[in-house]
Write a structure and sequence with these properties.
The complex is a heterodimer of chains A (215) and B (446).
Chain A (H helix, E strand, L loop, with lengths): L3 H55 L2 H32 L6 H25 L5 E7 L6 H16 L3 E7 L5 H9 L7 E4 L2 E4 L4 H7 L6
Parallel strand pairs in A: 1-2
Antiparallel strand pairs in A: 1-3, 3-4
Helix pairs in contact in A: 1-2, 1-3, 2-3
Chain B lengths: L1 H6 L1 H22 L2 H25 L12 E7 L6 H9 L7 E7 L6 H11 L4 E4 L6 H9 L6 E5 L3 E3 L3 H6 L7 E10 L5 H23 L10 E5 H7 L9 H11 L3 E12 L5 H21 L10 H42 L12 H7 L8 H17 L9 H8 L1 H19 L14
Parallel strand pairs in B: 1-2, 1-4, 2-3, 6-8
Antiparallel strand pairs in B: 4-7, 5-8, 6-7
Helix pairs in contact in B: 2-12, 2-16, 3-8, 3-12, 3-14, 8-14, 8-15, 11-16, 12-16
Classes of the chains: A alpha+beta (215), B alpha/beta (446).
Chain lengths: 215, 446
């Protein structure tokens, strides 16, 4: 006769196996959804880049620039939403690896910011005031979370302000180049209008740097 | 001076918190939290399933038709408020034979002595013994044992009130000479405040479900102090109660197990007892229990993992320590995770530049932790727990009503953390070597 201990072990293993597969399915679904959204955004960005190239090639800026500004603004918003989803998935999915998706996201983020610079040179202005926000990805940073909250409130208050977040410790070539360009040595740091502000920056200080167009 | 420092509350508290933080900081730096959660959760579920299987296997117990002579011993200390009711309930016990009732006053400083004299007038057969100076519960019990004439000895706390049929039902489990003790379903007497309502549920679960399963495995670790009955021959053979023990009810159970005696349980016999009415008193009581368990764990370490003692040595006794230790680890991890976040945000809000104070109340910060998929691994644990609580109410023949829900939620969540913190404090106290003693004020003032 099978002892009670063996029976209990089998029951517990079955319960845990069922649980494992359920959690795995849940996490994979989350990660898959995130990947799909990043892919969609990459596709949209490619489309926008091609349109910008067309504008440059045939000098059709007055005709196309307003539409480009509009799509860029929408893409930045999507990217920002994606950032929240990425952070949430990263912290909540225990059986899914989001590292690759994260790198793709950061590259898309960098690309979008560079595209914005190009858009400004082609169209004169993008109508967007970008704030670059540098934070550590691999460690907790109280001030950075506080800074993120402040940036959120500024972004919500000003329709022209958009935030681009860059993790400083993931050793990505393009991020390292941006860090080096703006002499980022500490976190949190923000860059507004080519000016680097190291350490936590208050809401009032940020508002004084951006020409806020209220929502 | 060093001894005084070691026994001071603040020194102990500081040491506990410091060691608590250092130990777990080191542990969590090395072991990933998921590994800790899953390992602990696996063990909790496994142990619960073992006990559930044994609980379901429970059959009818063989009952004896004999009613041997019985002595009731009531040790008391400063029990003026409860001794009347306790003695009255003892004399109201339905038992086919005349009971010998002995009260031992352990040098009370309140009106217990006068109360006992009044009780003597009402119950002339009541035997009163007195210690000239306070010597502790175990010595009081042993003093009474020298006068006890019964084949069965019932030990009852002075703030405990057995049901009229409790003794009669318990005695019938002495169906052979190998039974050394019989325990009952201990319930909380009239829970008035929230702390007591939580303990009401805890007692149903502990003395109802767990003890039933443990008794099936011949693995009872304690013969509850409020009321347990013993074979006088068994007590004589093992030499009575250990007088240097702060949990003599646990020590005697381990001693009986060690000597090869069985301990039986009947949940049909109900015993009601007063319980601590504040968190501070509860903390002191549980600290004593846990320290007693560690102390007795050392004393009876030869029984750990020893198949000579059957399921008790192989499984029940070692697992009782493992579960408590892992409970401490898991609770600490949760506290470190969420408590750390909270403190960080609080410091950020009050100490770092011009940060919006709403940071502290912004639940969004915790949204990631709340939906963490690892919580699904705990679904089964929660379901098993709920089922056990439901079973326990059934054992106690109680219905769950809406007023049980708040204490039940706290019992299943924060209370476990409280108990785990007590466990950790107990471990530290044992390591540091602060004096073990009975806290006479830990019981409720009825």
């Amino acid at each position: 006769m099978v002892s009670v201990y063996v029976k209990a072990l089998v029951i517990t293993l079955v319960l845990f196996a069922g649980n494992y597969f359920f959690v795995k399915y849940l996490d994979d679904s989350r990660a898959q959804d995130l990947q799909t959204r990043v892919s969609d955004l990459e596709e949209e960005m490619q489309s926008a880049r091609t349109l910008l190239l067309y504008t440059q090639t045939y000098n059709r800026s007055t005709e196309i620039c307003p539409a480009l500004e509009e799509t860029t603004r929408a893409q930045i918003n999507k990217l920002y939403d994606l950032f929240s989803q990425l952070q949430q998935t990263e912290s909540s999915a225990v059986l899914a690896d989001t590292a690759r998706t994260k790198r793709r996201f950061i590259l898309a983020n960098s690309e979008l910011w560079l595209y914005l610079r190009q858009l400004e040179s082609v169209c004169g202005s993008s109508g967007i005031t970008p704030i670059l926000y540098f934070y550590p990805d691999q460690r907790d940073c109280v001030e950075c979370r506080a800074q993120a909250q402040i940036l959120n409130s500024v972004r919500d208050a000003c329709s022209n302000v958009r935030v681009f977040a860059f993790p400083t410790d993931l050793d990505l070539g393009v991020v390292n180049a941006i860090k080096s360009r703006y002499s980022i040595t500490t976190t949190p740091s923000i860059v507004i209008n080519e000016k680097t502000l190291a350490g936590i920056t208050s809401r009032d200080a940020i508002l004084s740097e951006v020409a806020c167009i209220k929502n | 001076m060093l001894e005084g420092l070691r026994n001071s509350f603040w020194f102990s508290a500081l040491l506990v918190v410091g060691l608590f933080a250092a130990f777990f900081y080191a542990l969590f730096a090395v072991v990933p939290y998921l590994a800790i959660f899953l390992a602990a959760n696996f063990l909790f579920v496994y142990v619960a399933v073992v006990y559930l299987l044994k609980f379901w296997e429970k059959g009818e117990q063989k009952l004896s038709n004999k009613f041997p002579s019985a002595s009731v011993i009531i040790p008391c200390y400063n029990s003026a408020k409860t001794i009347d009711r306790c003695v009255e309930s003892v004399f109201a016990l339905e038992y086919p034979r005349k009971l010998q009732v002995i009260v031992v006053d352990d040098a009370s400083t309140d009106a217990t002595k006068q109360k006992l004299l009044q009780l003597k007038k009402r119950f002339p057969s009541l035997e009163i013994m007195r210690h000239p100076r306070n010597q502790g519960k175990a010595r009081s019990l042993n003093l009474a044992l020298t006068k006890a004439k019964g084949e069965i000895v019932a030990c009852i706390d002075s703030d405990t009130y057995p049901a009229r049929d409790a003794l009669k039902r318990m005695v019938r489990l002495f169906n052979n000479e190998s039974v050394g003790a019989v325990t009952a379903l201990v319930c909380v007497e009239e829970p008035r405040n929230f702390v007591q309502k939580i303990q009401e549920i805890e007692y149903y679960v502990a003395f109802g479900f767990w003890h039933t399963a443990l008794a099936e495995l011949d693995g009872l670790i304690v013969t509850p102090g409020p009321m347990s009955i013993y074979s006088a021959a068994a007590l004589e053979k093992i030499g009575g109660f250990d007088e240097d023990n702060i949990t003599e009810d646990m020590e005697i159970a381990l001693h009986l197990q060690s000597a090869g005696y069985k301990i039986r349980l009947t949940t049909d016999a109900v015993v009601r007892t007063d319980v601590p009415d504040s968190w501070a008193k509860l903390f002191k009581q549980r600290l004593r229990w846990l320290r007693g368990k560690i102390f007795n764990g050392r004393k009876y370490r030869h029984m750990l993992f020893n198949s000579k003692y059957g399921d008790f040595g192989r499984f029940v006794y070692p697992v009782s320590f493992a579960v408590e230790l892992l409970g401490v680890v898991v609770v600490s991890r949760i506290l470190f995770l969420h408590g750390g976040n909270f403190i960080n945000d609080l410091l950020g809000a009050v100490g770092v530049a011009q940060v919006d104070a709403s940071l502290v109340t912004n639940l969004g910060i915790y949204s990631g932790a709340i939906v963490n998929s690892s919580v699904f691994f705990f679904l089964f644990t929660i379901m098993v727990w709920l089922y056990i609580v439901w079973l326990s109410f059934g054992i106690a023949k109680q219905k769950i009503n809406v007023w049980h829900v708040p204490p039940m939620v706290v019992f299943m969540t924060l209370y476990s953390m409280f108990i785990s913190f007590v466990y950790f404090s107990g471990m530290v106290h044992e390591i540091v070597g602060t004096e073990r003693r009975w806290e006479n004020k830990e019981k409720v003032k009825a």
